[in-house]
């Protein structure tokens, strides 16, 4: 069964950091582009960051540039999202998604999705 599982969410104070993980099971991420999306209460889901299958190209939403870093470890079949300098407006459920292709995109046309992990930034 093909599955993506997110972890690493939680409650953090403004200015703090979290690292989210997206682990794949049932398939290899080697040939998959992977993206992180988020959905805040009452808002539409939006793209946050993505990475191509080789890890040679990344993309970030303007709202997180300079604060978030996406990376992948194909040996561990996992993609990470390092989130620094967190702000209350980063509060959302974060989802990872994957599709078997070279290029990544922040458009939500991915085949596989995880169940999400909650990130709350609050003092």
Number of strands: 11
Rg over C-alpha atoms, rounded to the nearest angstrom: 13 Å
Helix and strand content put the structural class at: mainly beta
Tell me the distance between the termini: 39 Å
Shape: globular
Give structural notes.
The protein is mostly beta strands. The chain is 0% helix and 48% strand. It is built from no helices and eleven strands. Strands 2, 4, 5, 6, 9, 10 and 11 form a seven-stranded mixed β-sheet that branches. Strands 1-3-8-7 form a four-stranded antiparallel β-sheet, with no helix packed on it. β5 and β6 form a beta hairpin. It starts with a strand and ends with a strand. The model has no long low-confidence stretch (mean pLDDT 96).
Overview features:
single chain, 123 residues, mainly beta, seven-stranded mixed beta sheet, four-stranded antiparallel beta sheet, 0% helix
């Amino acid at each position: 069964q093909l599955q993506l599982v997110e972890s690493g969410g939680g409650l953090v104070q403004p200015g703090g950091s979290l690292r989210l993980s997206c682990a794949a099971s049932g398939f290899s991420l080697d040939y998959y582009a992977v993206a992180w999306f988020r959905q805040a209460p009452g808002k539409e889901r939006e793209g946050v960051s993505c990475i191509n299958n080789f890890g040679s190209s990344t993309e970030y939403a303007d709202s997180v540039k300079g604060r978030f870093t996406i990376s992948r470890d194909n040996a561990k079949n996992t993609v990470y999202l390092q989130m620094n300098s967190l702000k209350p407006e980063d509060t959302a459920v974060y989802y990872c998604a994957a599709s078997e292709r070279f290029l990544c995109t922040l458009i939500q046309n991915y085949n596989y999705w995880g169940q999400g992990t909650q990130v709350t930034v609050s003092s």
